[in-house]
Amino acid sequence: MNMTKIPLGEWVDSLVDWITVTFAALFSFFTNLIDGLLNIIVDVLSVGPPIVLIIVLALLVGYTSKWPLGIFTVVSLLLVDNLGYWDSTIQTLAIVLVSGFFIILLGIPIGIWCAQNKTVQNIVTPILDFMQTMPAFVYLIPSILFFGIGVVPGIVASFIFAIAPAIRMTNLGIQEVPKDLIEASDAFGSTSSQKLFKVQLPLATPTILAGINQSIMLALSMVVTASLVGAPGLGADVYRAVSQINVGQGFEAGLSIVFIAIILDRITQNIRKPAYEKLVSRKIVLSIVGILIVVAALFNTFTKEDTIKGTGSAIGESTNYKIIGIEPGAGLMAQAKTAMKDYKLDNWTLVEGSSAAMVAELKKAYSKKEPIIITGWSPHWMFASFDLKYLDDPNGTFGGAEEINTLVRKGLKEDAPGAYTILDQFSWDTSDMEKVMVDVSGGMDPKEAADKWIKANTDKVAKWTKGAQAGNGEEIKLVYVAWDTEIASTNVIAKVLEQNGYKVKLSQVEVGPMFAGVANGSVDAMVAAWLPSTHKDYYESYKKDLVNLGPNLKGTKNGIVVPKYVDIDSIEDLK
């Protein structure tokens, strides 16, 4: 059917832009609120050496779920501390607790409202269906625009994704209260509030707690997703391990998440009927826990010294001493960390996230003419869309100009000689790549943008295909990382291969899997190797198992980037 496409995506973009501008003050308030609450919880959990919190959690788990699980808690958390993930674990616990707090604060009242009003239930139910089935990654996109990069959008996305069970189970628990008990309470002249708090909620408590338990588990499952927008914790460690194909680190961080999940699950599952309630009243235990929290908060308040992050740097104060980065496994991030050491930027933080999150944060700051510092590389469409500049790098930490190379698996020349020839002869300029990137950034489908460029540059494409044997439907697997440069180049070369008789399959992965896939032969090629600096470590690890066909683009550059309206010119100005 040749129908005009409904511009649904454009409508959503316009709506999000309007919301971002109209409710900017409200979003700023919530950002500060959530950040402040998170910092308080982190400070409370961090009071004293790790063994203090380990003992408290072990006693709480043992009290609710019997002593063997208490011993398990001690052993597992000591292992986490030994492996070096204690700080990340504290961050993850804090994120889950903040998400859980807002889930309980809003989920239970909405669930009660649904149980008491059929119209509300009919409205809320499809909304919950939408929230539970929409991919969690989608929530991150507007969250970045509303709340900026960092932990807050991760918590908001976790809250949206995880609140549904709390609402549903609260509604179900109240509706399942026997009707004869409701009738009896009515017969005794109970008011609506008396009936709710004296009859319905007590009887529905097991079901409500089950919903809260499931919501907390869902919130914990979001920690890796939240790391895509800069949320710290074990999720960021897992994401870093995946992007770097560090199996050991991934297992360690993943195991730490499993331990936290078991501990939280057992506490929330058995808090209503603790295993040793006959020995010690639940009220006494909860009171002790509350007192410990208050004491820890007060202790932290009186003992915590005010720290000065910077040394009077105006740009540091205005950007909260943050450099907005991209994926943790990117070579550019390794260069940025080295630069921070070389220039002694000890007070600065390099925020890990994703290239998309970084650009979203740039757009937000640029529209308000606010200072922002990012990691940058060219070619990139953002240099055509925004007035940006590289900061001078007098120490040469980021190196000089780089090249993007084409790498193929061993044996491709024999298996698909025509494809090998095209890949070997593929070469273009930064201006060519930028034309495709600008079209893609403007909303055009990457395949359409590639096709548009190819039709406008038949002479260049003819040089790539000269002397290449036509394919006969053989499948060529190309792999790329979701950088704008690689989306452009991979789609262009894929279209050229298809036009020459090959069936092309594209796979988007992280940097580490991209190199590993070509090296182990599970994919045929990539046109995305930034050498000699950005992807140096990956190339050195896998170069013996792949074939380097040389550069397909020259003159790339990496560095620290700021808008031109920011009044600094060198990385040294960040000191």
From TrEMBL:
Keyword Acetylation: no
Protein's membrane topology: Multi-pass membrane protein
GO cellular component, one term: ATP-binding cassette (ABC) transporter complex
Record key words, sorted: Cell membrane, Membrane, Transmembrane, Transmembrane helix, Transport
UniProt GO MF annotations: amine transmembrane transporter activity; carnitine transmembrane transporter activity
Protein's cellular compartments: Cell membrane; Membrane
Highest rank taxon of the organism: Bacteria
Assigned protein family: Belongs to the binding-protein-dependent transport system permease family. In the N-terminal section; belongs to the binding-protein-dependent transport system permease family.
The protein, known as: Glycine/betaine ABC transporter substrate-binding protein
